[in-house]
Amino acid sequence: MTTPRNNISVHFSSLSNEWQTPLWLFSQLNQEFGFNLDAAATAENNLCQKFYTAEMDALKQDWAKDGTTVWLNPPYGRLIGKFVKKAFEETTKSPRLTVVMLIPARTDTRWWHDYCSKGEIRLIRGRLKFINASFPSYRKDGDFKTSPAPFPSAIVVLGAKSKSTISHVTYKDPTTKKMNTNAKNEGYDAKRDSYYNKKLVNG
């Protein structure tokens, strides 16, 4: 007999490492940075015209050949340290390259101290709401409730556009008034977003 796993264990398991970027947050950051490469995506959720899937293996790619300003929301499982290291190495190798990462604020990890601490750190106030298809409550039709992630998040900027500062920031979803709404109505509305009305970023 298999013992059911509780919600907390699911949140922190390697099965739940794909936390989809809140599109309203990406839109705000895209206005600031202008991304042209999504370094960790799928064919269904890529946010830039140029992107790497798991099969393409971003860890083996030369990011500077495919973009100048890279968006990276890496898998949050065991590979996250390798992705952060890769981002640091790519920006060190290519001084004109900028990588902007959305990652858990795991300040107790080696990768945070070795690489994130060398860039611009924006500690996000509160908890972001992600969509994670591995959760039992997930439904493809979007009729499910989301809740804040069980970890704090941060934006880390490495490379050319990094200011090498630490700040506390608040990113607000401009299209929602109530925080506890269902996923269909939760904040982001593609029809109201000038970015998403284009085919893709730089498309």
Give the topology, please.
Layout lengths: L6 H5 L11 H11 L3 E2 L24 H4 L2 E4 L7 H14 L4 E7 L5 H5 L5 E5 L28 E7 L6 E4 L34
Summarize the structure.
The chain is α/β, with parallel strands linked by helices and 203 residues long. It contains five helices and six strands; from the N terminus they run ααβαβαβαβββ. Strands 1-2-3-5-4-6 form a six-stranded mixed beta sheet.
Number of structural domains? 1
Percent of sequence in beta strands: 5-15%
What is the H/E order?
HHEHEHEHEEE
Shape: globular
- What's the oligomerization state? single chain
**Rounded radius of gyration (Å):** 17 Å
**Largest β sheet strand count, sense and barrel closure:** 6 strands, mixed
**Would you identify the CATH architecture?**
3-Layer(aba) Sandwich
In angstroms, what separates the terminal alpha carbons?
Answer: 51 Å
Number of strands: 6
**Low-pLDDT residue spans:** 1-16, 178-203
CATH topology: Rossmann fold
The total count of helices amounts to 5
In terms of structural class, how would the helical and strand content be classed? Answer: alpha/beta
The top level CATH class name:
Alpha Beta
The average pLDDT value, as a whole number, equals 78
The helicity comes to 10-25%
Strand order of the largest sheet: 1-2-3-5-4-6
Description:
The chain is α/β, with parallel strands linked by helices and 203 residues long. The chain has a single domain, classed as 3-Layer(aba) Sandwich (Rossmann fold). It has helices spanning 7-11, 23-33, 63-66, 80-93, 110-114; strands spanning 37-38, 69-72, 98-104, 120-124, 153-159, 166-169. It has a six-stranded mixed beta sheet. Strand 1 (37-38), helix 3 and strand 2 form a beta-alpha-beta unit. It is globular. It starts with 6 loop residues before the first helix and ends in a 34-residue tail after the last strand.
